[in-house]
Amino acid sequence: MATGESEIAVRAEGLVKSFGSTKALDGVDLEIPRGQVLGLLGPNGAGKTTTVRILTTLLRPDAGRAYVAGHDVLGQPAEVRRSISLSGQYAAVDEHLTGAENLYMVGRLYGMSRADARARARELLARFRLTDDSDRPAKGYSGGMRRRLDLAGALVAKPAVVALDEPTTGLDPRSRMDMWEVIGELVEDGTTVLLTTQYLEEADQLADTIMVIDHGKVIARGTADQLKAQVGGERLELVLAEPTDLPLAQQVLADVGSGEPQIDTHTRRAEVLVDTGTKALIEALRRLDQHSVVVNDVALHRPTLDDVFLALTGRAAEEPAQESSKSKKKVKA
Amino acid sequence: MTTLATAPQGGFGGALARTLSDGGTITWRNLMNIRRNPELLLSATVQPIMFVLLFAYVFGGSIGDDPVAYRDFLMGGIFVQTVAFNSAFTVIGMANDLQKGIIDRFRSLPMSNSAVLLGRTLSDLAVTTLGLLVMSLCGLLIGWRIRGSVTDAVLAYLMLLLFAFAMAWVGSLIALISGSVEVAQSAGFIWIFPVTFISTVFVAADRLPGPLQVFAEWNPISALSDSVRSLFGNHQLLPPTDAWPQQNPTLYALISCVVLIAVFMPLAVSKYRKVAAK
Predict the structure, then answer these.
(1) Could you report the per-residue pLDDT of A78-90, keeping only the tens digit for each?
(2) Could you tell me which residues of chain B have a Cβ less than 8 Å from any Cβ in chain A?
(3) Which of A263-272, A310-319, B244-253 comes out lowest in average pLDDT?
């Protein structure tokens, strides 16, 4: 283990990987401090899965180096496999085995005794709310349950680093919230997480640092706040009680804002871009209050990561339908 | 951060113990799969019965001079043919596994590299054992008998299982090379037809034309068939030819199995390491 590495759980330098003539990764660097969550954000085919597969020893890069918990991914694959585990978008569970049997099997393959493997399986099944279904073959599980079982499988040996490859792709909103909760608990326990996602909201919710990747290249990195600041500006939004007050609100917003206010009489909504954030908000409310205008709702929106992606790439981040992600199956880049 | 997994034991002994333990876990997993899908056993049990009955009653009358003696002769060959055909199940089972997400889980675990293959070949050996049992019963019904000593009979079954194990490794390599279940399905079967038919499974080597006779004489499947027949004390259609494998069928069959395992086991293991890292 090299000196100064102890606080860095995962480090990759200049990763390059081509599949035929397609360059899946074109010099990706990344670093995850211990206990933090790095969100790897990008559309389909950006190189997210390739990065994860290299870091989990499933794929050899054409060039570049990578270290997990100080172990060289190329030179010490066995040590790396003890330090990082993978939970992917294609749930790696045996569908003919029950939930309990799946986790028992993984425990045994980590070298645990039969009793330890069984005990750990029970513990994880309870933690992931699968106890009631633990003796049913995974074939009958819902998509969300399979994902939870798969994640439980990745946690059997309490790895220092967990790679989550699009953990919520294709899940319904309810299962997605469940999954976020589970990932949140994982982070609280001090696990270092590499999270790939094409959902901007997900990266915003879960990641300490976000890396935006597109066509195998890192096009931006920073905290969610820093990325949003790159787009600049906030949006001040008011909802009034009476539509007759809208012209006055328009006047006020034009004064405090940095752009042309937009009015929607139907929803009694008025909004404008502002540079001065809360200052503009307070000034607007003070002046409306002077004229006894009743404000039902007020909000100061920071730009979303959608806006960020649009600003960085000149196109919206695609959120593909479930159908297309299913039909991709094994063809991942 | 503490880890629950035990550190790997050093040395060759530790690695071997790890391989056997992991192989055992995968074997358990495969057998559980069969338990939940008993229909997987259909082809391993029904197909041999079909072959026994077809050859005993459709071709039996035409091939030998005496149909009863031919049925006694036939069983040794059919045992070997069934074992050879069973390698196709290894091909399909392995190819299926390779297409599933579970293989990523296995490959990302600090487990033995050869355990997935060892587990597959061992669980298929259990299936073959069942197939041999079913066929033996079927053989008894049509007049086949174990006429030699118990020791020889046990040796005959052990030879068949050793050959099954060797063929399972051949099947594993075919699955790893095939790249898809569809390709694996035909690749696993096609070559077994000529290899089992140009042999002494159904006929005596003497009756085959020139080059085919030489092939049959040196075909390990012939040697194993003849060896099993003599160990069971069964009828031989004609005396063996002068070729060395015909004169020493048991020794030649043993050597062949060992060579097959020594060649195909390491080939399959090294191919498995590479296959998902494409």
Answers:
(1) 999 999 999 977 7
(2) 1-6, 8, 18, 21-22, 25, 28-29, 32-33, 36-37, 99-111, 115, 276-277
(3) A310-319
- Residue A2 Cα distances to A56, A68, A80, B79, angstroms: 20, 12, 15, 60
Residue with tokens 């569908």: A95
ipTM above 0.95, yes or no: no
Chain A residue numbers touching B2 (CB-CB < 8 A): 158
Could you give the number of structural domains in chain B? Answer: 1
CA A294 – CA B275 distance, rounded (Å): 68
Model pLDDT, residue B277: 57
Name the DSSP class of B10.
P
> In chain B, what are the helix, strand and coil shares in percent, each to the nearest 5?
80, 0, 20
Q: What SS3 state is found at A229?
A: helix
CB spacing of A94 vs B104 below 8 angstroms: no
Do the domain assignments include residue B86?
yes
Residue B9: inside a domain? no
* Range in A112-126, B110-124, B196-210 with the lowest mean pLDDT: B196-210
Question: What is the residue range of B159's domain?
Answer: 19-275
Tell me: the pLDDT tens digits for B94-118? 999 888 878 888 988 999 888 999 9
Q: Is the pLDDT of residue A241 over 90?
A: no
Residue type, A167: P
Query: Hey, are the CB atoms on A111 and B32 less than 8 Å from each other?
Result: no
Asked if residue B6 belongs to a domain, the reply is no
Contact call for B32 and A60, based on CB within 8 A: no
pLDDT value of position B273 = 82
Please check whether residue B188 lies inside any domain of the structure. yes
Q: Which domains does chain A have, with CATH numbers?
A: 8-223 (3.40.50.300), 233-302 (3.30.70.100)
The answer to whether the CB of B205 falls within 8 A of the CB of B246 is yes
With cut-offs at 50, 70 and 90, classify the pLDDT of residue A100: very high
Give the amino acid at B192.
Answer: I
Q: B91 and B174 in contact (C-beta within 8 Å)?
A: yes
Q: Is the pLDDT of residue A332 over 50?
A: no
Question: What is the interface size between A and B, counted as CB pairs within 8 Å?
Answer: 101
Q: Chain B: give the shortest CA distance to residue A108, in Å.
A: 7
With CA atoms as reference, report the closest residue to A242 among A299, A294, A298. A294
Cβ–Cβ below 8 Å for B8 and A78: yes
Helix, strand or coil, per DSSP, at residue A249: helix
Q: Which of B5, B101, B103 sits opposite A157 (nearest CB)?
A: B5
For B35-70, b/e burial (b = at least 16 CB within 10 A) is eeeeebbebbbebbbebbeebbeeebeebbeebebb
Largest distance between two CA atoms of chain B: 76
Q: Which of B121, B115, B128 is nearest to B157 (CA)?
A: B128
